Structure formats: structure tokens, C-alpha cells
Amino acid sequence: MTYVITSPCVGVKDGSCVDVCPVDCIHPTSSEKGYDTVDQLYINPDECIDCGACEPACPVNAIFEESAVPAKERQFVAINAEYFKNH
Ligand code: SF4
Ligand code: SF4
User: Fold this and answer.
1) N or C: which end of the chain has fewer CB within 10 A?
2) CA–CA separation, 40 vs 18, rounded Å?
3) What is the pLDDT of residue 24?
């Protein structure tokens, strides 16, 4: 399983989740290439250890454990994974 970043992150990208992730699996960070052009941040499902630290850190409640992603946000499970196929 993994945690997933959903639509409320779009346009916010404040990075609070990045600061608390123990395995640095949320990208791109503000210091990484591509940060300025992405709509949102993404969680690498292959690296996330399911610790849950990021969920309460998000000021806009954009982060959910995969099985708890709301129905209207389900596409973000694939959107997060897809980002890491190219980065
Ligand atoms: S659940 Fe833990 S490991 Fe996974 S993205 Fe959030 S903080 Fe990082
Ligand atoms: S804390 Fe929430 S809004 Fe901020 S970058 Fe992470 S997912 Fe996006």
C-alpha cells in the first residue's frame, strides 16, 4: 500500500508533507528540477512505507491512504504512480 496525494494539493504545493516524510518519497521538492511546472506533488508508491506522517501535516487534507482515497479522487492513485515512471 501507499499514501496518495489528491486534487486539493493542486496549486498549493507548500511542501509540509515533504518536511515530515522519513524516506523522502514525495517529489518534486521545491529544490528539485520541475517543481515550478508541476501542478501538485506526488508520492512514490514503491518507496512509501505507509507511516502516515504526511496525512495530518497537509493543510488542505489532500493525502489519503490508498484504500481511503475518496471515490471522486481515485484517479490520483494512478496519477501519483505515473509521475515516477518519468522521473
Ligand atoms: S506515508 Fe510516510 S512514507 Fe509514505 S509518503 Fe507519507 S510520510 Fe512518506
Ligand atoms: S502538504 Fe498537502 S498541499 Fe502541501 S505539498 Fe503536501 S500534499 Fe500538497
Assistant:
1) N
2) 12
3) 98
Segments forming the whole domain that contains residue 10: 3-83
Instruction: Give the distance (Å) from ligand 1 centre to CA of residue 28.
Output: 14
Ligand 2: distance of its center to the CA of 26 in Å?
9
Given the CA of residue 57, which atom of ligand 1 is nearest to it?
Answer: 7
CA distances from 75 to 3, 35, 68, 71 (A): 13, 21, 13, 9
Kindly report whether the global pTM for this prediction surpasses the value 0.90.
Answer: yes
* The residue to which cell 499514501 is assigned: 3
Can you give the CATH number for the domain in which 59 is found? 3.30.70.20
Number of domains composing the chain: 1
Give 36-74 pLDDT, tens digit per residue. 999 999 999 999 999 999 999 999 999 999 999 999 999
Using CB atoms within 10 Å of the CB of residue 50, give its burial: 0 to 12 exposed, 13 to 18 middle, 19+ buried: exposed
